[in-house]
From TrEMBL:
Recorded superkingdom: Bacteria
Family: Belongs to the LysR transcriptional regulatory family.
A Gene Ontology term for the protein's cellular component: cytosol
Protein name: LysR family transcriptional regulator
Organism, scientific name: Marinilabilia rubra
A molecular function (GO) term: DNA binding
UniProt keyword Transcription, yes or no: yes
Keywords: DNA-binding, Transcription, Transcription regulation
Keyword Zinc: no
Gene3D superfamilies recorded: Periplasmic binding protein-like II (3.40.190.10), Winged helix-like DNA-binding domain superfamily/Winged helix DNA-binding domain (1.10.10.10)
Amino acid sequence: MNIQQLEYIVALDDHRHFVDAAESCHITQPTLTMQIKKLEEEIDVKIFNRGKKPIEPTPAGEEVIMRARQILREVYELHNFVSIEKKSIEGEFRLGIIPTLAPYLIPRFLPQFIQENPSTHLRIEELESEQLLKALHHDRIDIGLMVTPTDEKQIKEVPLFYEPFLFYAPYDHPFMHNKFIEDKLLDPAKVLVLTEGHCFRNQTLDICGKENQTNNAFGFFYESGSIEALKSMVRKGIGYTLVPELSVDSMTDSPFVRRFAEPEPVREVSIVVHQNFSRQLLIEQIKNAILDNIPNNINKTKNIKKIKWR
């Protein structure tokens, strides 16, 4: 038994004529006849008395048709409900965002999103990448902003932009004499990195050649949870680091920044939701607000190298 078969018996009850009923269902008359016969055989009930002219339901068939109409109404109401749900973003939604994106992305897009969606309230929480994915799987958040790909089948990813990694070093560092930085010149022992758990740490070490990593060359061990803290260390002449382009302030950071030679290493920033998430309009509104407010130079480089974090 399926929904189409129920639609066919209702149509035949409405029209009391096989050809007219088939036309109303946009199928051929033999197909309609065959499907109704299959249904009758499956439930072992003769639904229509074909000896009558016009055709009419049997007493048992009337009960079957009545229940079929009820089921079809409920199916229609369910489709209507889902359609409204997809188009509605009123109420509160929980948004998770990784710490290396939060301070640089939220202030850019949130004002526009709030203005355009006054009936939507976002409860925003910073979560490291693995925690964010776990929260999505456990329905603790509704939507996430993070670096992808995640390579998880149950997670739907909506790529937003590719954010370049930039080299950040003291202005008198020998590498700063170069217009572009070659990643093969970087020494993992001299790079300042974020603490374990940050996907940006994994990507930084990947770019710097983590297979060649040795003990650090600073005489101390320091890992921070803040990109701004690493930048402050570098400005004091300690080592160098990599930073995402959105974190760079053109007024204060320019003397300490160099771009990488092409193919330029980038991270893919995406909206992520569980595959069962139905509020497509919310995804689109967040996406539009973000893309409207990121710098124009983001995504301009065509020759890129996407760095994975897993």
